[in-house]
Amino acid sequence: MKNTFPLVAKTMAGLEQVLAEELAQLGAENINVLHRAVSFEGDKELMYRANYCLRTALRILKPVSSFVARDEQMLYDKIFSVKWHEIFDISDTFAVDAVVSGKYFTHSQYAALKVKDAVADEFRSRLGARPSVDVENPNFRINIHIENDKVTLSYDSSGESLHKRGYRKAVDKAPVNEVLAAGLVKLTGWKYDCNFIDCMCGSGTIPIEAAMQALAIPAGYFRKNFGFQYWSDFDKKLWEKVQCEENDKIRDFDYCIYASDHSSKAVSIARSNIQNAHLSHDIILSKCDMQDVMPPESPGIMIINPPYGERLEEDDIVSLYRMIGDTLKKNFAGYQAWIISSDNRLLKLVGLKPSKKIEVYNGPLECRFVKFEVFKGTYKDMKSSQ
């Protein structure tokens, strides 16, 4: 019988259902969609597999206890009572992440500081010394979630955020997060049965994530380590088994992925990232203005992440979105075109009727991920031909 326990996968707003579907495919049980998170149950093997495979998860947390605390002293005392010196070594580094809401705790950094002090003091009281803090790349990461007076203590099995895949060494302006990029690809419903295009590829994140999905390359394939590898109960053989099983699923892709950008700098950065992901033979990259892109014959899927207005003057941004619409109608008949933008006014300038709108977040920006069915002739002609 499997030794299952509760787990929580954190994600970005708007991707919760996509993440829940990924977890179901991995065999997770008791899946429950939350806000920016999905709770589930699984064993150690599933925890390893979730870290290695999930494309839309930011972190995999293992809740270990919950308790009530209404002030900083109660929080400190509860954390101090944990035998931390038995959980990780004094030679390890550690860090604390905290999320707080409600009337009792209002500053997440202060709550994290009190937890850090309690952990360090527990070591000092037992061993006469304390481990060092490393906020950037700790061996052991502690997560505290406080809602009113309910505190949940979790161990972070991921370590660094899972969006840090390991292939992206450089970025252009306002890069899209890898988890969001993967989520956008999944939200299109693409079945890897046609070509994929990104005409405004920037650093190359969207086409790289599309290629990894099409080729079934695990999301964590290029990462050097995960948090659970520093835990005292780390099972190296089980971890190697998970990696081998998932790597054996890597496959060929019968179509092409095209990436282009008008910026020489962006194309150079994208080329470097594509090379780091060993996808130079799978992604066709070129420097080209969108209006000059001549895509292969339809059907096909397109995703673009154009500027939202923060970096362009008003006249330029208006012209850009009108150009996008004109180019879609002229060159992309038969394609499904998806555009992410935080400005609904700009999306209307595309001049096409959207068939689907999905709310997602790009960092703090509330965005719409909008689908346009591009067809020849009129909408009436298209419907009558179906």
CATH superfamily of the largest domain: Vaccinia Virus protein VP39
For the largest beta-sheet, the strand count, sense and barrel status come to: 8 strands, mixed
Order of helices and strands: EHEEHEHEHEEEHEHHEHEEHEHEEH
Helical stretch count?
A: 11
**What CATH first level of the largest domain would be assigned?**
Alpha Beta
The largest beta-sheet arranges its strands as 2-3-1-4-8-7-5-6
How would you classify the helix and strand content by structural class?
alpha/beta
Distance between the termini: 52 Å
Q: Given the C-alpha coordinates, what overall shape results? A: elongated
Q: If you had to describe this structure to a student in words, what would you say it looks like?
A:
There is one protein chain. The chain is α/β, with parallel strands linked by helices. It folds into two domains: 152 residues, 2-Layer Sandwich (VC0802-like); 199 residues, Vaccinia Virus protein VP39 (Rossmann fold). It is built from eleven helices and 15 strands. The strands form two sheets. Strands 2-3-1-4-8-7-5-6 form an eight-stranded mixed sheet. Helix 3 runs parallel beside helix 4 and helix 5 crosses helix 6. It is elongated. It starts with a strand and ends with a helix.
